[in-house]
TrEMBL record:
PROSITE patterns: UPP_SYNTHASE. The active site is at D38, N86. One of its GO terms (molecular function) is magnesium ion binding. Residues 1-18 have a biased composition (Basic and acidic residues). This is Isoprenyl transferase. It comes from Rubinisphaera italica. The lineage of its organism: Bacteria, Pseudomonadati, Planctomycetota, Planctomycetia, Planctomycetales. Its EC number is 2.5.1.-.
Length: 260
């Protein structure tokens, strides 16, 4: 009797896990993945190298993960490259970051176009140097008609600043009589943010273990799934990215409601 009961409960278990894996196969992948690429400096220091070597190696991971995300069918990939608070770093590190950013924009243009990526940025890019702005605008223009994944770089980005900029724009519209205060809703505010036209991130990945958001996409990540790894950005692999995606599809996104 005992054996029979055990057998039938095992059968139920087997059936359930088969159903589970079917459900997993059918679960939608994240359309928008946003990454806080952290830990470059610590990675380098751990290896006895200067922090800038971490940034140099971080660019290699960017290349790899952009390709991986596009191949996986992600529609939007947002990468936190430079925050509005990163200006607090020492001048030598900042000037190396600017050098690397310009070099990346020039070196990767061909590859961005080959992969048919749509290139965009968020953040106060107008405060970057004219040379960097030129490279940004060139790639934006050349990739404008592409139909592949959107690669969005967060440059001199801070979510609080972004929300302030949006509120100012709306206040100016109200002042000109183009908008009534009562008309302002979530959609209108969303459309005034730098991320206008992009869906909210489904999945936020942070490397290097910190359990914080660091002023990234505060409005947009209200219901994003968070995935944090202890690995530093230069050592983050394609397999890690796939692991994050697999964990994501197992999550039960309830958006405040009740799922069965
Ligand atoms: C992330 O790595 C890159 C930028 C913020 C520009 P960090 O430079 O923050 O590296 P850690 O966190 O100090 O190790
Ligand atoms: C977040 O990393 C910003 C980027 C990855 C560009 P930080 O290293 O600046 O964040 P904190 O200072 O640890 O919060
Ligand atoms: Mg950091």
């Amino acid at each position: 009797m005992e054996t029979e009961i055990k057998t039938s409960s095992e059968a139920i278990q087997e059936k359930t896990s088969a159903e589970d894996s079917q459900a997993l196969d059918a679960a939608p992948l994240p359309r928008h993945v946003a990454i806080i690429m952290d830990g470059n400096g610590r990675w380098a220091q751990r290896k006895g190298m200067p922090r800038i070597e971490g940034h140099r190696n971080g660019v290699k991971t960017v290349r790899k993960i952009v390709r991986t995300a596009a191949k996986a069918g992600v529609e939007y990939l947002t990468l936190y490259c430079l925050s509005s608070e990163n200006w607090k770093r020492p001048p030598a590190e900042l000037s190396f970051l600017m050098f690397l950013l310009k070099k990346y924009l020039v070196d990767e243009r061909k590859e961005i176009l080959r992969q048919k990526l749509q290139f965009r940025t968020i953040g106060r890019t107008e405060e970057l140097s004219a040379g960097i702005l030129d490279e940004i605008n060139k790639t934006k223009k050349l990739s404008a008609d592409n139909t592949g994944m959107t690669l969005c770089l967060a440059l001199n980005y801070g979510a609080r600043g972004e929300i302030i900029d949006a509120v100012r724009k709306l206040a100016e519209q109200v002042e000109r009589g183009e908008l009534q205060p009562g008309q302002i809703d979530e959609q209108i505010l969303s459309n005034s943010l730098d991320t206008t036209g992009m869906p909210d991130p489904d999945l936020v990945i942070r490397t290097a273990g910190e359990m914080r958001i660091s002023n990234f996409l505060l409005w947009q990540i209200s219901y994003s799934e968070l995935w944090v790894t202890d690995k530093h950005w230069p050592e983050f692999t394609e397999a890690d990215f796939h692991m994050a995606m697999q964990d994501y599809v197992k999550r039960d996104r309830r958006f405040g409601g009740l799922n069965s």
